[in-house]
């Protein structure tokens, strides 16, 4: 085994937990940051053999990785292996010249900024700390520090967000000329404080929201971005000096590659196994301090399941999905149905969704997958 | 037993007016059951009957009182079983007419009282529940005396609950009800007024011997159906089965037949000896036909064999139940069932669900139609809207005479309701200062739809209602088909009067639009009379169905969602290319049954 080529590292700390967030996060705990980073590095040592000697990509997600105390963050980055792409998620209000310099000198090649919206009213609904000017300033600071690959995260479908406000957010984002944009529809998970507070409002705008992804795609495509994954856009090569600006780390997930995840709540998929570290920070740190693996939930993956996931994930991309090796999980009748409805094209030995098919990706995937799976 | 010492009687009462309690007191007083054995309401043996407070199957109990043999013949208490009631009454010479002192006379009481009068029965009026604080014994006695043309002083006043006055009832039975007067030496004739099925002994017939004598091991014949069998045992109920060596003219009892199906022996038929038997059967036999039909489908298609077995078992004890296999492309395999009326249908459905633990989908009930298809020489009967020929020359539907008793204040409301339901006013009578008896003729189809619910809600529950069939009459009726994406959904076809077809079609189509989930393409929902579309809605295609975010930590959750989505698809019924959840059919079928 050559080892996973993608490494994910979870940094759970945040200044504040936003109402809509469903990630594993921990508020404040400044005194625990150093210990947590030590635990991460201990877990890396334990799993080292599962990782390729020189991984292709590393991704630091959160939480708010850049809320981590800077010495701890630097200790972590310095100890991680070299990689072709190293991405760090950052909240705009945390981006200072000192942070930018720290990231730059530790071989970080890409920063993903959690902007979410450019409108104070909508940011308040999301309980975000940063204002629109923080986002613009952060982009400036990162550019000044030499970062040539920035991604902006946007959220659409915020309670009270009309089509005009959505377009305004997109225009503001485009004006900052990021290399990459991720646009997510807000998911108000039932039972969360957020869903409780905004449920009626979200239900009322549900029908309009159906058109938002179409708007996002249209506006960004017109601005020269490639819709390469359901929620991901990158500047087209002809507008980027020929470079492929797709997020390579995330591509790894969508192409069904193995990945190793470190940190509390992190998920790894290696071969026929997937595991999730339990979300308890104390137990994570405690176990690793004693030199043991943290408590985990293990999920065995059959070849059938991985093939099922290949279809589910691969169809999110704008590149055709080769059917070699996954034929047995496809339903020929379903395939013909979605083809007839103009949602999918067959290109040689590969399947490609049409634009409308991509907007209906989950339903199309459900049609395509065979009703009974041998796993 | 000398006929002069025999008294055969029934108790006629509205639900909850105390028939069963009175029967219990009579059994106690005559020592037919000891107080310790006394289970409350001995006659109503089925669980369902107890819960609904009604009696489905008639039975007969023999008791002794002051040297007389009294046979209490129980009668079913609802309109659906009018024929059975009339046969039970024919087996008697008299009847107790029991009325609740607080409630007064109800429509059902009236209907059965008329039936008793038509059968020349001596009626003993009884006002019950005089112990209740809100009782009006005098007023109720007046009403009863008025109805019967009797003297209010002759109306008995009792409390079956406390036992007050019940002995006087027994005395009145002996004094007022005439003894039977059959031909003791003639060829044996007995009226079958009920039957039931015993797992070990086969069909047991309950009979009233009119002429001659019946003995065990006699070869017997049912005169209308021609069924022959040997009497394996004869006897009477007290209330347990007691075998005897002879049942003779005037007596009431049972015959164990050994037959395997109740349908081989019909209520109303006459039993006689196979050799040297009577020439003429007793009068009044009718072949009762189901009037209300509905499709019964198992919610889970795997339960079809269980449903078939359950119907077979019910049929053993319910000769009026009719069923035949039906296939619906929307609902799968099931049965088209015929019932005497709505209550009969409810009882069958509940027994299937309760005793056989089946989950059922029941289509909106419809009535039987008589149809002459275009250019066809003969009439046919149609039990299912989907079988109605699209081109017809003539259609007839069953009509009923409805009897509604209601406080004066609601007369206008009831008349309005009847007019909406194509009713034709027949007459109006004041039963007392405040209570009015209205008679209307209405199409049965309108009753089947939701008439009773509407009547109850519009009169705040004060109206009582009963009906009997008056025959088939021509109607301007059309078949309405419901189409989903151009495919007709057989289970949703309906037959409606032309004037209401448009409204009903529009409601069905709107409801379906709400219930059918959006698909990957636009789905047209139409209602059509022949090729003419009279209502249309569209379920717009989904524009977006994809979860925005999916990274390494989301894959398992996402996959499980997708598997659930696929699992959900399996439970959908396929109408052409459209996936329709079973709940959608259910909602629409409920609409057909419920409000409009």
- SS content category of chain B: alpha+beta
In oligomeric terms, what are we looking at?
Answer: heterodimer
Radius of gyration of chain B from CA coordinates: 28 Å
**Major beta-sheet overview of chain A:** 9 strands, mixed
Counting DSSP E segments of at least 2 residues, the number of strands of chain B comes to 34
Identify the overall geometry of chain B. globular
Radius of gyration of chain A: 21 Å
**Main sheet strand line-up of chain A:** 9-10-8-7-6-5-4-1-11
Numbering strands along the chain, what is their spatial order in the largest sheet of chain B? 11-10-16-7-8-15-12-13
Descriptive terms for the model:
heterodimer; A: 375 residues; alpha/beta; nine-stranded mixed beta sheet; globular; B: 596 residues; alpha+beta; eight-stranded antiparallel beta sheet
Architecture overview:
- The complex is a heterodimer of chains A (375) and B (596).
- With 375 residues, chain A is an alpha/beta fold.
- Helix content of chain A is 39%, strand content 21%.
- Chain A contains 14 helices and 17 strands.
- Chain A has helices at 33-47, 70-79, 97-105, 120-126, 132-144, 163-175, 193-209, 212-222, 248-254, 281-289, 303-314, 332-340, 355-359, 361-368, and strands at 6-11, 13-14, 26-27, 57-62, 85-90, 110-116, 150-156, 180-185, 225-229, 232-235, 260-262, 267-270, 273-277, 296-300, 321-322, 344-347, 350-353.
- In chain A, the strands form four sheets. A nine-stranded mixed sheet of chain A has the order 9-10-8-7-6-5-4-1-11, sandwiched between helices. Chain A has a three-stranded antiparallel sheet with strand order 12-13-14, with no helix packed on it.
- In chain A, helix 6 (163-175) runs parallel beside helix 8 (212-222).
- The longest helix of chain A has 17 residues, at 193-209.
- Chain A is globular and about 60 Å long.
- In chain A, 47% of the residues are buried.
- By secondary structure, chain B is α+β, with helices and mostly antiparallel strands.
- In chain B, 27% of the residues lie in helices and 34% in strands.
- In chain B, strands 11-10-16-7-8-15-12-13 form an eight-stranded antiparallel sheet. A six-stranded mixed sheet of chain B has the order 2-3-1-4-5-6, sandwiched between helices.
- In chain B, strand 25 and strand 26 (435-443) form a beta hairpin.
- In chain B, helix 11 (498-515) packs antiparallel against helix 13.
- The longest helix of chain B has 18 residues, at 498-515.
- Chain B is globular and about 90 Å long.
- Chain B starts with 5 loop residues before the first strand and ends with a helix.
- Chains A and B meet through strand 8, helix 8, helix 9, strand 12 and helix 11 of A and helix 12 of B.
């Amino acid at each position: 085994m050559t080892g996973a080529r993608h490494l994910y590292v979870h940094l759970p700390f945040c200044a504040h937990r936003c109402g809509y967030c469903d990630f594993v996060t921990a508020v404040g705990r400044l005194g625990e940051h150093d210990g947590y980073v030590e635990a991460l590095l201990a877990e890396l040592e334990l799993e080292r053999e599962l990782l390729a000697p020189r991984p292709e990509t590393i991704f630091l997600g959160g939480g708010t990785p850049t809320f981590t105390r800077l010495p701890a963050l630097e200790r972590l980055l310095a100890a991680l292996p070299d990689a072709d792409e190293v991405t760090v998620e950052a909240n705009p209000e945390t981006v200072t010249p000192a942070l930018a310099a720290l990231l730059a000198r530790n071989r970080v090649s890409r920063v993903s900024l959690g902007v979410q919206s450019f409108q104070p009213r909508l940011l308040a609904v999301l309980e975000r700390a940063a204002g629109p000017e923080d986002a613009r300033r952060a982009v400036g600071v990162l550019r000044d520090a030499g970062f040539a690959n920035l991604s902006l995260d946007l959220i659409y479908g915020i309670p009270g967000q009309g089509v005009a406000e959505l377009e305004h957010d997109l225009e503001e984002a485009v004006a900052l000329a990021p290399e990459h944009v991720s646009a997510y529809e807000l998911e108000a998970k039932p039972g969360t404080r957020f869903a409780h507070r905004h449920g009626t409002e979200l239900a009322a705008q549900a029908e309009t929201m159906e058109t938002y992804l179409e708007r996002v795609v249209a506006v960004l495509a017109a601005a020269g971005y490639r819709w390469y994954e359901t929620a991901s856009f990158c500047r087209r090569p002809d507008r980027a000096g020929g470079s492929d600006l797709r997020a390579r780390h995330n591509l790894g997930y969508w192409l069904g590659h193995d990945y190793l995840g470190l940190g509390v709540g992190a998920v790894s998929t290696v071969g026929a196994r997937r595991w999730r570290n339990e979300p308890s920070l104390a137990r994570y740190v405690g176990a690793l301090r004693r030199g043991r693996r943290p408590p985990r939930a293990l999920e065995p993956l059959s070849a059938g399941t991985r093939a099922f996931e290949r279809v589910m994930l691969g169809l999110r991309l704008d590149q055709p999905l080769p059917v070699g090796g996954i034929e047995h999980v496809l339903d020929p009748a379903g395939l013909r149905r979605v083809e007839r409805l103009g949602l999918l094209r067959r290109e040689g030995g590969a399947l490609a969704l049409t634009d409308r098919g991509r907007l209906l990706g989950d339903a199309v995937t459900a049609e395509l997958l065979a009703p009974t799976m041998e796993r | 037993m000398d006929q002069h010492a025999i008294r055969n009687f029934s108790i006629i009462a509205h639900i909850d007016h105390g028939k069963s309690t009175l029967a219990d007191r009579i059994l106690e007083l005559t020592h037919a059951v000891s107080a310790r054995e006394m289970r409350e309401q001995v006659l109503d043996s089925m669980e369902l009957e107890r819960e609904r407070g009604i009696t489905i199957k008639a039975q007969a109990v023999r008791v002794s009182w002051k040297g007389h043999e009294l046979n209490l013949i129980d009668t079913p208490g609802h309109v659906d079983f009018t024929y059975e009631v009339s046969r039970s009454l024919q087996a008697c010479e008299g009847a107790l007419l029991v009325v609740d002192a607080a409630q007064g006379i109800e429509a059902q009481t009236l209907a059965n009282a008329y039936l008793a009068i038509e059968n020349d029965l001596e009626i003993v009026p009884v006002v019950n529940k005089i112990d209740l604080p809100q009782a009006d014994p005098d007023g109720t006695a007046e009403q009863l005396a008025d109805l019967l043309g009797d003297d209010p002083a002759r109306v008995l006043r009792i409390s079956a609950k406390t036992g007050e006055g019940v002995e006087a009832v027994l005395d009145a039975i002996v004094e007022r009800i005439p003894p039977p007067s059959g031909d003791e030496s003639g060829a044996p004739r007995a009226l079958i007024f009920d039957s039931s099925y015993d797992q070990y002994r086969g069909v047991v017939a309950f009979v009233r011997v009119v002429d001659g004598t019946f003995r065990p091991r006699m070869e017997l014949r049912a005169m209308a159906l021609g069924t022959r069998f040997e009497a394996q045992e004869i006897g009477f109920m007290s209330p347990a089965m007691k075998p005897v060596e002879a049942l003779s003219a005037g007596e009431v009892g049972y015959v164990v037949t050994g037959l395997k199906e109740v349908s081989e022996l019909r209520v109303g038929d006459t039993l006689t000896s196979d050799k040297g038997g009577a020439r003429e059967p007793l009068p009044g036999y009718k072949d009762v036909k189901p009037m209300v039909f509905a499709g019964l489908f198992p919610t889970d298609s795997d339960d079809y064999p269980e449903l078939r077995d359950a119907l077979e078992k019910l049929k053993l004890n319910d000769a009026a139940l009719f069923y035949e296999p039906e296939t619906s492309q929307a609902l799968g395999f099931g049965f088209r069932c015929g019932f005497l009326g709505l209550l009969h249908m409810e009882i069958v459905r509940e027994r299937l669900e309760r005793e056989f633990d089946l989950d059922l989908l029941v289509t909106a009930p419809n009535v039987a139609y008589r149809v002459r298809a275009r250019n066809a020489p003969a009439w046919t009967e149609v039990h299912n809207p989907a079988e109605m020929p699209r081109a017809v020359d003539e259609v007839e539907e069953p009509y009923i005479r409805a009897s509604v008793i209601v406080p004066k204040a609601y007369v206008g409301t009831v008349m309005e309701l009847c007019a909406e339901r194509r009713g034709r006013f027949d007459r109006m009578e004041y039963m007392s200062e405040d209570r009015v008896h209205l008679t209307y003729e209405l199409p049965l189809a309108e009753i089947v739809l939701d008439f009773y619910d509407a009547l109850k809600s519009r009169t705040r529950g004060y109206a009582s209602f009963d009906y009997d069939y008056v025959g088939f009459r021509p109607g301007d009726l059309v078949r309405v088909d419901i189409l989903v994406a151009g495919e007709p959904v057989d289970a949703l076809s309906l037959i409606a009067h032309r004037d209401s077809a448009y409204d009903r079609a529009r409601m069905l189509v709107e409801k379906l639009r709400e219930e059918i989930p959006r698909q990957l393409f636009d789905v047209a929902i139409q209602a059509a009379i022949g090729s003419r579309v009279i209502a249309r809605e569209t379920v717009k295609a989904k524009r977006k169905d994809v979860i925005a975010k999916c990274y390494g930590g989301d894959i398992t959750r996402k996959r499980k969602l997708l598997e659930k989505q696929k699992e959900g698809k399996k439970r959908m019924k396929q109408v052409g290319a459209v996936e329709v959840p079973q709940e959608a059919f259910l909602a629409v079928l409920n609409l057909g049954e419920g409000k409009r």
